[in-house]
Design brief:
Strand content: 15-25%
Number of helices: 12
Strand order of the largest sheet: 1-3-8-5-6
Distance between the termini: 22 Å
CATH class of the largest domain: Mainly Beta
Shape: globular
Largest sheet: 5 strands, mixed
CATH topology of the largest domain: Jelly Rolls
Order of helices and strands: EHEEEEEEEEHHEHHHHHHHHH
Structural class: alpha+beta
Number of strands: 10
């Protein structure tokens, strides 16, 4: 397997980043490799299959992917339209200092999970990303420009994680709020938002992707996991009971979804947040404690 080194990528120059645009024809492939630097890339058009550390994910327009040092990955174009994507690479020491100062950077760049982060972007955030990348092309040797770009990107993503519906039309915001307010709606599955909004499933799916970067199924799973997190800290239900109460048909569906959303297993989440609640509020051990919610905007791995 090919191993790429930063010094070779930047031709032993003093460059602190490399920004590329790539195009792969249908069936074209970037062979499996790993590297000693960080990389993020986003899909401009076409579709592809991305294999990271032995697991495959389908990629499409607007998907943003992180690759950490030592992740093994390959990319294959699988649509008639060429797969076009933009790739930003930079040395690991650039991120080390930011991870030390900001917890948000650890989530995206320093995770110990087997799979790195992959997020489908809303149209507005995708356009913002393209404008930011255009700015980087004008100053490829500026550490200030790179730091500013990365901090602004993480800030935008953090805001989207907290409220992915912030840019949606009012009718979609209201439907999403009702979905999260009433757990009974979670049993409706991917139909829930369309029924609550009184719109066709196709229209809801289109607008949700455009403004929030999610599919209806991802929106429902987000609400289910948010509800599960509250039950884990505020009830004595078993994990199996919580999974079924939140609308999951099996534990095999619940566990991976919960880990994608919260970055830990349900049991780890319950122990950590109950311990925190008891240390902060020892006289209120029976109260519901809403921990700092890590709401997702469709992040998947």
């Amino acid at each position: 397997m090919n191993v790429l080194h930063w010094e070779e990528l930047c031709f032993r120059s003093s460059s602190i980043m490399k920004l590329f645009r790539h195009q792969l024809p249908n069936g074209g492939e970037i062979e499996e490799h790993e590297h000693d630097f960080h990389e993020i890339f986003w899909v401009l058009s076409g579709e592809g299959v991305h294999e990271v550390n032995g697991e495959r994910t389908r990629l499409r327009h607007g998907d943003l992917v992180w690759i950490r040092p030592r992740d093994r990955h390959r990319l294959t174009a699988v649509s008639r339209k060429p797969l076009q994507f933009c790739n930003l690479a930079f040395p690991a020491n650039i991120i080390a200092g930011l991870i030390a100062r900001y917890e948000e950077f650890r989530y995206y760049f320093g995770g110990d999970n087997r799979q790195p982060i992959m997020i489908p972007l809303s149209e507005s955030l995708f356009e913002w990303l393209e404008r930011g990348a255009a700015g980087l092309r004008n100053c490829p040797d500026s550490r200030l420009a790179l730091d500013r770009f990365l901090m602004n990107l993480i800030g935008e993503l953090a805001a989207m994680r907290m409220n992915p519906y912030r840019s949606c039309p009012p009718w979609l915001q209201e439907a999403a709020a009702e979905l999260e307010r009433n757990p009974e709606h979670l049993k409706l599955g991917s139909r829930a938002l369309a029924l609550l909004a009184g719109r066709t499933p196709e229209h809801v799916a289109r607008e949700l992707r455009r403004f929030a970067g999610m599919t209806p199924s991802e929106a429902v799973n987000r609400a289910r996991i948010d509800y599960a997190a509250r039950l884990l800290t505020g009830s004595d239900l078993t994990i199996t009971e919580i999974a079924y109460q939140c609308g999951f048909g099996s534990l095999s569906g619940f566990f991976p979804a919960f880990q994608r959303f919260c970055r830990e297993t349900p049991l780890e989440y319950r122990r950590a947040h109950r311990n925190f609640e008891q240390s902060c509020c020892p006289k209120k051990s029976g109260s519901v404690f809403t921990a700092g919610r890590s709401g997702s905007a469709g992040a998947r791995r």
